[in-house]
C-alpha cells in the first residue's frame, strides 16, 4: 500500500507543479493562452491520475531505481517541452509583430502611390500646358 502512495504522490506533485509553472508563465507573459491551455489540461490529468489510480503492484514491473530513473526522464522531458513552449510563444509574438509591421508598411505604400499619382498628374499638367503655349507661340 505504501509503495502505491509514493507513485500517487509523485503524480499529484508533478501535476501541481506543472499547473503552477504554466500559470506563472502565463502571468509573466512567457507563454500565451493558446500554449498554456494544454499545459493546464495535462496537469489536471496528472492530478486526477494521482487521485484515482492505485498502483499497488508496481514493484512487480519496476524496481525502485527504475522508478527514480523513469521519474527523472519524465521530468527532463517535461522541462524540455516547457522550453519549447516558451520558444513557440516567442515565435508567435514575433510573427504577430511582423504582421502588424507589414500591414503598416502596406498602408504607407498605398499612401505613397496615391501621392505619386497626384504628383505625376500635376507634373504632366504643368508640362502639357507649357508645351501648348510654346507650340502656339512658334
What is the compact description of this entry?
The protein has 138 residues and is an all-alpha fold. The protein is built from 3 helices and no strands. It has one domain (2-137).
Give the topology string: H per helix, E per strand.
HHH
Unreliable residue runs = none
How many helical elements?
3
How many beta strands in the DSSP annotation?
0
Averaging pLDDT over every residue, what do you get? Answer: 86
Distance between the termini: 115 Å
- Beta-strand content estimate: under 5%
Main beta-sheet annotation:
none
The tally of structural domains comes to 1
Report what the structure shows.
By secondary structure, this protein is an all-alpha fold. The chain is built from three helices and no strands. It has one domain. α1 packs antiparallel against α2 (33-52). The longest helix is centred in the C-terminal third of the chain and has 74 residues, at 64-137. The relative contact order is 0.09.
Amino acid at each position: 500500500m505504501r509503495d502505491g502512495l509514493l507513485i500517487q504522490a509523485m503524480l499529484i506533485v508533478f501535476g501541481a507543479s506543472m499547473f503552477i509553472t504554466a500559470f506563472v508563465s502565463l502571468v509573466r507573459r512567457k507563454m500565451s493562452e493558446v500554449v498554456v491551455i494544454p499545459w493546464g489540461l495535462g496537469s489536471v490529468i496528472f492530478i486526477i491520475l494521482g487521485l484515482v489510480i492505485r498502483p499497488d503492484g508496481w514493484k512487480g514491473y519496476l524496481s525502485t531505481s527504475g522508478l527514480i530513473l523513469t521519474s527523472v526522464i519524465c521530468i527532463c522531458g517535461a522541462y524540455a517541452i516547457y522550453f519549447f513552449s516558451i520558444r513557440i510563444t516567442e515565435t508567435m509574438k514575433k510573427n504577430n509583430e511582423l504582421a502588424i509591421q507589414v500591414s503598416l508598411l502596406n498602408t504607407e505604400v498605398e499612401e505613397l502611390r496615391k501621392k505619386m499619382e497626384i504628383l505625376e498628374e500635376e507634373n504632366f499638367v504643368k508640362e502639357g500646358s507649357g508645351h501648348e503655349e510654346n507650340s502656339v507661340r512658334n
